Amino acid sequence: MKSLVDLPVRPAPTAPADHLTLRRGAARVLIDNWTGASTVPSRTLYPHQWSWDSAFVAIGLRHLSVRRAQRELESLLAGQWADGRVPHIVFNPALPHDAYFPSPDFWQSSRAGRTAGAPSAPETSGIVQPPVHALAAWLVHRADPEESRRRGFLARVRPRLAAWHDYLLTRRDLGGGGLAAVVHPWEPGMDNSPCWDSALERVEPAPPHAFRRADLTHGHPADRPTDLDYGRYVRLATDYRAAGYDDRGLAHRFALEDPCFNALLVVSELALAAIARELGATGEPHTARAARLTRRMVARLWDEDTGLFRARDLHTDTLVDERSVSGLIPLVVPHLPQDVVRRLHTALDGPHFDAPATRLVPSYDLTGHAFDPTRYWRGPAWFNTAWLIQRGLRTHGLQESAERLKDGFLTAAGRSGFAEYVDPCTGAARGTRQFSWTAALTLDLLCADPKEPMP
Amino acid sequence: MLKTAVQEQLLPGDTLQAKWDFAQQSGYDAIELRGKGDLHFASRLDELKQAAKDGVVMPTVCVDMLHFLGAFDEDLRRDAVAQMKSQLTVIAEIGGVGAQTPASYGMFSRRLPPFEPPRTEEEDREVLLAGLTELGEHARKEGVTLFLEPLNRYEDHMVNRLDQAADLIRATGLDSIRIGIDSYHMNIEETDPAAAILAHADVIGHAQVSDSNRFQPGAGHLDWPAWLGALHTIGYDGHLALECRLTGDPVEAVRSVPGFLKRSGA
User: Fold this and answer.
1) Minimum mean pLDDT among A247-251, A401-405, B42-46: which range?
2) Cis peptide bond upstream of A122, omega within 30
3) What DSSP line would sit under A9-69, residue for residue?
4) Closest partner residue to A64 among B192, B225, B235, by Cβ?
5) Do B230 and A65 touch (CB under 8 A)?
6) Source organism's superkingdom (chain A) (predicted)?
7) How far is the C-alpha of B169 from the C-alpha of B166, rounded, in Å?
8) The domain containing residue A119 runs over which residues?
9) Catalytic residue status for A449
């Protein structure tokens, strides 16, 4: 048995005196990574605009410049397709094509996606990411309602956000159960999570010579997905592209209902209800839709045995037998059954997610067969998921746990230089540094009214 | 919280003491003085000393003349340098921190006819470096700082952006010269004003504020939270000195600024 001294010690929480340094550091990252109309997640690794990154960035940017926060979301939504999808990347046309893979000439959105409604410009990817945007828009509005009204911010983004949700709940209801499905491991945002492994085995990888990865130029191979995984990602994307990105015309080989993705859709529906009310319309249809989504999420994705939400593989119509942080994110949903909240709260402090070296929540089961403390979404602890869980804990009145997680978040953000993610076993920074959403959500935790309600 | 100052001519009252009462009531932390030519500023020494004794906070002076250290005319240039030296001495004597000047104002614009100035860029640089070095050394001797203010392209043809001012300052090797930034000029000249503040943080010494239309902050459309957020980020601890024209009731306009800046993140 390990003695107490052998156990890694979690770093002490940052003192309030450090908060000024932290705030300045976070603002510096956001100013450095601003490109004029949006924020790059990282100047080196991710040089374009990413969908859920922009939403998280806007949530922090609202404390630095409400106008920039609004622009962040507006510029992302300018890449929206006519079918309602908000693409996961909006490419910066000023950069060479080899700045990132898959590049614009891989996705070929303006040609291959024309029928599905891709814009002629800008070039975008053809897949999506979790719908955090309506939540972000509402929080940005709340930061300065007067400026928001003056610029007509909500009135302009509301129809786009509504179309985005409609897309997810019609074209993407692939399981027929009223939830949105993801069709590529990049869509739930947790690219190489072990949750996708079994589904990916059905996918024949594209040969290595068919693509050249750009993520390894700036990222360490041990921190990134493997080549085999990458081959499968490429195959799924090329199949989707060949079908013109038409969800109706393609039997997706990869189709799952993800708890985090759908939980964010619930919260964003509630945000749309608040946005509608602010604009003098009724929020009722969105509130009702959020309630329906919540019921379906519990019915289809809650696993009583593990006390977690789990992804549903639509090919086998079974829950994926893995524990992931995605299964804890539904805590952000306000109207969950009490018992579900209690079990999720318990799981956070249990052996699967209570990390030795950080209060952040590991992306995957610490005791799981595929756990890898350094590889992207197969174990490392991320800041956006911690921010969501922290908000969820507050939503359910679990203030003490929320406060602990917030302290742990701020400590890890400061120590890691606003890292992309941290090793949950050592607390060491991993991935890129000066990562935009880490800085943005740090700023939000430092500046937002702790009593700010979820929509 | 960033400190605010207001230029003396914007304040109601016949004396600095009366102006200071109004400034304090409106929420300002200091008064920025204006330094006229013909050694007028030096002639005010007794008045300034008495005001300082009465508790008026006057950290800076901004030059108020029509010729400057970058003048084409050698006599005017020599006079501008002499005037600035005197202003640096006086501001030191009353316990202030520095004096602000542009390279020139209203002398030439490359955007207006005849488009080509009578001096080459190399000659401009030589003249500016000579003047700055002389003034910087004088400032150092007096224990104060010379603030070089970049102006927009229609008001000066030599120093429009922070990077140009920073380059000249670094070339002199003097830490007694810093940039005096101005939100109005930065809005016209900088690609990203907030990023420019971060990029030149080590040489920024003073800040003046007015909105996009040269009126008081709040009357235009500058992104104040981003600009002020950048100053917070670099740990700027000087004043935000109000130098602007006023729109609306002038007294109310001046009174509105500290509250507006505070609400915008100052």
Assistant:
1) A247-251
2) yes
3) PPPPPPPHHHHHHHHHHHHHHHHHTB-SSSB-SBTTTB-SEEHHHHHHHHHHHTTT-HHHH
4) B225
5) no
6) Bacteria
7) 5
8) 21-447
9) no
Counted residue by residue, chain B has a size of 266
The average pLDDT across B80-90 equals 98
Q: Which two tokens stand for residue A395?
A: 């939503």
B61 bridge partner residues:
B33, B99
Pick from A320, A432, A416: nearest CA to A360: A416
pLDDT tens-digit readout, A29-49: 999 999 999 999 999 989 999
Question: Is A8 part of any domain?
Answer: no
Please say whether the beta carbons of B87 and B41 come within 8 A: yes
Q: Which of A83, A420, A423, A444 is catalytic?
A: A420
- CA distances for B239 relative to A417, A448, B105, angstroms: 30, 27, 23
Catalytic residue among A144, A191, A215, A239: A191
Q: What is the mean pLDDT of residues B27-51?
A: 98
Q: Rounded to whole angstroms, how far apart are CA atoms A294 and A300? A: 10
So what's the pLDDT on residue A455? 86
User: What residues of A are in contact with residue B226 (Cβ under 8 Å)?
Assistant: 31, 64-65, 67-68
Q: Is the peptide bond before A450 cis (omega within 30 degrees of 0)?
A: no
CATH 3.90.1300.10 applies to domain B3-263: no
Residue-wise pLDDT for A338-355, tens only, equals 999 999 999 999 999 999
Find the radius of gyration of the CA atoms of chain B: 17
Average pLDDT in chain A: 94
Tokens for A81, please give them. 């397709």
CB contact set of A278 (below 8 Å; sequence gap of 6+):
A141, A145, A154
Cis peptide preceding A131, ω within 30 of 0: no
Q: Are A365 and A322 in contact (CB under 8 A)?
A: yes
Number of domains in chain A: 1
Q: Is the pTM of this model over 0.95?
A: no
Q: Do B233 and A68 touch (CB under 8 A)?
A: no
Indicate the range of A1-5, A264-268, B167-171 predicted with least confidence: A1-5
**A317 belongs to the catalytic site:** no
> Quick count: other Cβ atoms within 10 Å of Cβ B242?
26
Q: How far is B192 from chain A (nearest CA, A)?
A: 7
Residue A9 lies in a domain: no
A6 in a domain, yes or no?
no
Whether pLDDT at B101 is above 50: yes
Domain spans of chain B, in order of start: 3-263
Query: Which pLDDT does position B16 carry in this prediction?
Result: 98
> A156-188: per-residue pLDDT in tens?
999 999 999 999 999 999 999 999 999 999 999
Distant-in-sequence, close-in-space partners of A185: CB < 8 Å, separation ≥ 6: A191, A192, A193, A196, A200, A229, A232, A233, A236, A254
8 Å CB contact between A265 and A286: no
Task: Give A289 to chain B, closest Cα distance, Å.
Answer: 37
> Which of A28, A64, A144, A147 is most worth mutating to test chain B (most B CB atoms within 10 A of its CB)?
A64
Classify A312 as helix, strand or coil.
strand
Residues of B with CB under 8 A from a CB of A: 191-192, 194-195, 198, 223, 225-226, 229-230, 232-235, 265
Residue A10 lies in a domain: no
Are B225 and A27 in contact (CB < 8 Å)?
Answer: no
Residue A232: CATH number of its domain: 1.50.10.10
Q: Residue A324 carries which DSSP code?
A: B
Do residue A34 and residue B192 have CB atoms under 8 angstroms apart? Answer: yes
Nearest alpha carbon to residue A257 among A340, A193, A210, A317 = A317
> A51-61 and A133-143 helices cross at what angle (nearest 10)?
20
Q: Which two tokens stand for residue B19?
A: 């102006």
